[in-house]
Amino acid sequence: MSFLYRHGLLITRKQPYIDWANSCDDDGPKLTEDLSSASRLLYLVPEVDGEPDLEGLVDEFWADIFEQELGMWVIADDRWPEPRTREMFDAWFDVELNDSVFDLTPDEPLTQAEVDAADLAEMMMRCASCGIELGENEGRLVGFKLANRSLYEPFEGRVLPLRMDDNDEADVVLTFVTFQDSAAAKDGDDVVVHVCSSRCEKVVRSVVPKALRRWSRRVRSLEGAE
């Protein structure tokens, strides 16, 4: 068990938020009170000296929380309500203060950065084709050029698992999306895969482009559905 030097703000969405969410898309899924309660978010904020002041913490973080809560239902921020004020936030959300936060699994990754680092370590320790374990500095990186890099912006600097077909139980290849301003991307390597040999390089060069196209089509279809 590990004590975190954070307070927690637990958010409950009130009826105005639910009404807004259900007005965004007549044909889309509906947000019920039960679903809203089951998916409440806890926001960690810096620990303060002495007794934490709920009003002061909400004053500092309400705008960030508001944007996150809106983005949970509608990604496109041009469809969010404007203007957003503290009074509107209070009408849309209830906030509870959790004074102390404990991490019961301190050995597990806690932040997105730690998860990303663990994913990258996993990718680099095995061949993406045959699965053989690789030591440090073993193997090679195989790069691929993306037809539409903008679809992959949320994964820049992160590992993107690609299924080899549309079956949910299909084999997964771990790929790494390079940063747009990196030397690798400038050389045309928008996505890289770790392999052990030239034979496995030939395999991934035949299957990864198809998997990338399937993934891109799926993202475009989801964007079109919003």
Textual characterization of the structure:
By secondary structure, the protein is of the alpha+beta class. It folds into two domains: 2-103, no CATH class; 112-225, no CATH class. 38% of the residues lie in helices and 21% in strands. It has helices at 15-23, 33-38, 54-73, 86-92, 112-124, 183-186, 198-225, and strands at residues 2-4, 6-13, 42-46, 93-98, 101-103, 140-144, 158-163, 172-177, 191-195. The strands form three sheets. The chain has a four-stranded antiparallel β-sheet, with helices on both faces. A three-stranded antiparallel β-sheet has the order 3-2-4. A two-stranded antiparallel sheet has the order 1-5. The chain is globular and about 60 Å long. The model has no long low-confidence stretch (mean pLDDT 90).
Write the layout of secondary structure elements.
Elements: E1 2-4, E2 6-13, H1 15-23, H2 33-38, E3 42-46, H3 54-73, H4 86-92, E4 93-98, E5 101-103, H5 112-124, E6 140-144, E7 158-163, E8 172-177, H6 183-186, E9 191-195, H7 198-225
Antiparallel strand pairs: 1-5, 2-3, 2-4, 6-9, 7-8, 8-9
Low-confidence stretches: none
Return the average pLDDT rounded to an integer. 90
Radius of gyration: 22 Å
Strand content: 15-25%
Outline type: globular
Helix content range:
25-40%
Largest sheet: 4 strands, antiparallel
Structural class per helix/strand content?
Answer: alpha+beta
Straight-line distance between termini: 41 Å
Tell how many strands the DSSP assignment holds: 9
Whole-number count of domains: 2
Helices, by number, come to 7
- Order of strands across the widest beta sheet? 6-9-8-7
- What letter string, H or E per element, gives the SSE order? EEHHEHHEEHEEEHEH
